[in-house]
Write a structure and sequence with these properties.
alpha/beta, 34% helix, five-stranded parallel β-sheet, 15 strands, OB fold (Dihydrolipoamide Acetyltransferase, E2P)
Length: 259
């Protein structure tokens, strides 16, 4: 019997190492590649053609669900999403019969996922079924997933706590374990939080990701200047300058810079 060829993708290395360690216990499974973001995961899947992809639901720039959208049906492997508990994601996956693993991943749950994957691969039309289910799960999650966006972010400065209105924030930039918030008036605050977690709680119509480590308020953008290599220099109304990544520049062009 052929081994189940697996690609894993998670932006946190310890999470990838933990999954690989668990998978080494299964003789019928083989990790053929790993990626630290959704964009690399897409290229890896296209290149390696794995049987199963274990994708972190929330990754910077390109999430697990967005990665799936970038694959054609002929490129689609079986997919199981790996996620911290997210009520709406769990509802979407269960409603559409999509496999998912909750962090921290349990060996018994992983074993069941691998067994189901092996069974599905024996079905003649598995790829078509998988693609349809994944598309439907993505729609379900988008329709229910975000809930109400937060309106203020509590930040501590010295011994005081300030409630910064989200609409007054110009940019949010990650720096290691910290996020640096800059307001329209160039006031600066730092909080200990992960960018991808905060992004989920912001209005996606108001904030856009410029790179792996930066979110900006659309209403605070002054101008966008093309740069060599297909990127942009985004100048905020408060004078801040932030360079967009190549990937996010494509998204900016498609969503914002065309009538």
């Amino acid at each position: 019997m052929n081994k189940l060829r697996i690609v894993i993708a998670d932006d946190e290395r310890p999470a990838r190492e933990f999954l690989k360690k668990l998978l080494r216990d299964f003789e019928g499974a083989e990790v053929v590649g790993e990626a630290e973001n959704g964009s690399d995961a897409v290229e890896l899947i296209k290149e390696l053609k794995p049987d199963l992809a274990l994708l972190d639901l929330q990754m910077p720039e390109v999430s697990g669900l967005e990665a799936v959208r970038l694959l054609r049906k002929s490129q689609m492997p079986l997919v199981a999403f790996v996620t911290a508990y997210d009520e709406y994601a769990v509802q979407a996956f269960e409603l559409n019969a999509i496999d998912y693993l909750l962090k921290p991943v349990e060996r018994s749950r992983l074993a069941a996922t691998l067994e189901r994957a092996s069974e599905r691969l024996e079905q003649a039309d598995w790829r078509e079924r998988e693609t349809e289910k994944l598309r439907n799960a993505g729609k379900t999650y988008e329709e229910t997933g975000r809930g109400e966006a937060i309106e203020r972010i509590p930040v501590k400065k010295r011994e005081e706590i300030f409630l910064v209105p989200v609409g007054e924030i110009s940019s949010i930039v990650a720096d290691g374990e910290l996020l640096h918030l800059t307001t329209l008036k160039l006031e600066r605050y730092s909080i200990n939080f992960r960018l991808k977690d905060l992004e989920l709680r912001l209005d996606e119509k108001q904030f856009v990701r410029l790179s792996r480590g930066a979110l900006v308020n659309l209403d605070a953008i002054g101008r966008v200047s093309p740069m060599p290599g297909g990127t942009y220099l985004v100048t905020m109304k408060n004078g801040q300058e932030i360079t967009s990544s190549r990937l996010q520049s494509k998204i900016l062009r498609a969503k914002l810079l065309k009538l």
